Amino acid sequence: MIQSNFKKKMTDSWFSYLQNQICKEFELLESGKNKFSKRNWTKDNKNEGGGTSFLLTNGKIFEKVGVNKSTVSGNFKKEFRKKILGASLKSDYWASGISVVAHMKNPKIPALHFNTRFIMTTKEWFGGGMDVTPSHKDNQEKILVHNMLKKICYQNKKNYKKYKKWCDNYFYLPHRKESRGIGGIFFDYETKNWINNFKFVRELGHTFIDISKKIINRKKKLKWTKKDKEKQLLKRGRYVEFNLLYDRGTKFGLNSGGNIDSILMSLPPEAKWR
């Protein structure tokens, strides 16, 4: 049986490594001219951990991209405990994870989102996924994304259809009766076989980098108009609505004493509503 401290050390180290790799690859896409700024933060009780936030703004490719990693512990608020697996009888938890949200300058390039996490209460599990939110329809791009995600799921004996459906259902705005984007995969409460799940989470991190580079390199030279930008800003409004009303990560962060600026990093620098 694998010890809890080993699992904590391995997941924490992986998420830190992946954070650095993503920042390195995204800076290369910016031709090295724009760099991430780094900010460390800790919870009010420093013994309960904290995180590191990397932010790049006003780039040639990225209008705003945040790459956040945190490792925190503590006790859930009483009213929140029943919503978390394994926390109803005992309030303490440990969690480590990474979250990436990229909003692009060129409206022809979709917004990209990725996160993976490992959480321990009286239970322990992996969760996460990635999804793509375009403001302009592109069937080739949709096929590319889903083929790559399907491949990694099959290679790791994961149920792609289940994860895809979970993503479609999760990233749905019921008050708008519309999906946020073209989906991807989403999973949670993967409690069995820690070694295999950790392998899948690591490979998904590499796949996110590969998908991001393919999408950006395919579209970075496309011309766009003010009308295209207007369409993107309206789509970003939907992004804001979802993240503030429904997103689990936002709610988890706010209820676990996380850093507010890092939690709200997912919000775009500019958005519009009719």
Can you tag this structure with a few keywords?
274 residues; alpha+beta; oxygen-dependent coproporphyrinogen oxidase; 42% helix; globular
| Major β-sheet annotation | 7 strands, antiparallel
- Number-wise, the strands total 9
Give the overall silhouette: globular
- The helix/strand order is HEEEHEEEHHEEEHHHH
Number of domain modules: 1
Concise account of the structure shown:
The protein has 274 residues and is α+β, with helices and mostly antiparallel strands.
SSE layout and pairings?
Layout: H1 4-29, E1 37-42, E2 49-57, E3 62-75, H2 78-81, E4 92-104, E5 111-120, E6 124-133, H3 139-155, H4 160-170, E7 172-173, E8 178-179, E9 183-190, H5 194-219, H6 226-245, H7 248-255, H8 260-263
Antiparallel strand pairs: 1-2, 2-3, 3-4, 4-5, 5-6, 6-9, 7-8
Descriptive overview:
The chain has 274 residues and is α+β, with helices and mostly antiparallel strands. It has a single domain, classed as Coproporphyrinogen III oxidase, aerobic (oxygen-dependent coproporphyrinogen oxidase, 3-Layer(aba) Sandwich). Helix content is 42%, strand content 27%. The protein has helices at 4-29, 78-81, 139-155, 160-170, 194-219, 226-245, 248-255, 260-263; strands spanning 37-42, 49-57, 62-75, 92-104, 111-120, 124-133, 172-173, 178-179, 183-190. The strands form 2 sheets. The chain has a 7-stranded antiparallel sheet with strand order 1-2-3-4-5-6-9. Strand 1 (37-42) and strand 2 form a beta hairpin. Helix 1 runs parallel beside helix 5 (194-219) and helix 3 (139-155) runs antiparallel to helix 5 (194-219). The longest helix is centred in the first third of the chain and has 26 residues, at 4-29. The mean pLDDT is 93.
